[in-house]
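JOB MANIFEST
job_type = single_chain_structure
chain_count = 1
residues = 213
[input]
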Amino acid sequence: MPKKLFFNLPEEKQARITQTALIEFAEKTYNESSTNRIVKKAGISKGSLFKYFHTKEDLFFYILDYVLGNFISELSGEAVNLSDDLLERVVQYVEIEFSWYLRNPAQYKLIQKAFFDENSEIFPKIEKRYELVGDRFYDRLFQGINFDKFKWDKQKILNVLKWLLKGFNDEFIKKTILNDNNIKSVKENYLRELREYLTIIKEGLCKEAKRNV
């Protein structure tokens, strides 16, 4: 967390430091990112930066918390108006998630690098710190769903969908890394494949046995 002195700064200066650090961590890997570039672009001294944050790592986690907070807050707000049909809600949620990525490319790039740069010296800390964040978010996402038409246990159904979405999100981020972050070019195929997998879940894996005439 930032030191108390950071929160005593004028809002404009806090925002300038935050946005400058966000861009640096989004454009560079954590290992390649530089506090020298951050202070130069933010127009502050390096000594001042470390009066506000204990270390580069402390600054990074403040920025990542800020980005994930924005992501979860905005998507949770939009999720309130989604369908109460479970499988339709999944598709609608993915569409608003894509919209958020497109509206916030720098924040998306930071998420991308933070959770998929296994060479980062702080990658193990990132995994541990945010281990439960996704589960809590998905639990909120699926609130208010009518499960009466399903024959399986509610928690098992939710687990299957959480695993499916996590796998799809991991694949999506990897594809955009390889595709120069071109989110638009991935979206159509992603949604088409997602609908196919949801159809498999809805209709089941096995063919119906032929009846004897």
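[summary]
DSSP finds eleven helices and no strands in the chain.
The two ends are 72 Å apart (CA to CA).
exit_status = 0
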